[in-house]
Each structure stands twice: as C-alpha cells, then as structure tokens.
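Quick one, tokens below. Sequence please?
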C-alpha cells in the first residue's frame, strides 16, 4: 500500500503530465497561476469578510492560459508542435 505522500506525488505527476507521459509546462503554469490566484483571493476575502473581486487582468491571463491548453491538446494527441525552429 502506498503512503499518503507517495500517492499525492503520483496524483500530482499524473495531473501535470501529457498523454505521452512527459511533463507539461503549460499545465504546471496553469496549476501554479490558479493556485496563487485562489490563495490571494481567499486571503483578501477573509480579511474583508466579503468575496473579493478579481481584476480583469487576472481573468484575462487565466483565459489565455486555458485557451493555450485547449489549442495544445489536439496537437499533443497527434504529436505535432508549434516549434518555429523545427524544419519540415
């Protein structure tokens, strides 16, 4: 039986991995950004005892990250990349 720490590492690495098993920097960026936004939002909300508003710029960045992931997902399945240095 796995210890809780090992199980959590497995779940986190599975969440941050692409379908081919390699780590996804975009998923990591989304995870860190969303976690950071939530922590700041929750802290501010608790201090003022009311739900805080999210600035438009934060919502825009979250939207861009989600859109990037939506665009990346089909390319991840067919094995193509958007690397401009790659020829052919």
């Amino acid at each position: 039986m796995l210890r809780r720490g090992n199980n959590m590492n497995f779940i986190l690495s599975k969440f941050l991995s692409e379908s081919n098993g390699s780590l996804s920097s975009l998923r990591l960026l989304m995870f860190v950004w969303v976690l950071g936004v939530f922590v700041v939002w929750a802290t501010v909300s608790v201090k003022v005892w009311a739900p805080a508003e999210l600035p438009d710029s934060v919502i825009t960045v979250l939207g861009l990250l989600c859109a990037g992931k939506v665009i990346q997902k089909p390319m991840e399945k067919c094995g193509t990349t958007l690397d401009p240095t790659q020829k052919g």
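The chain has a mean pLDDT of 78. Residues 13-65 form one domain.
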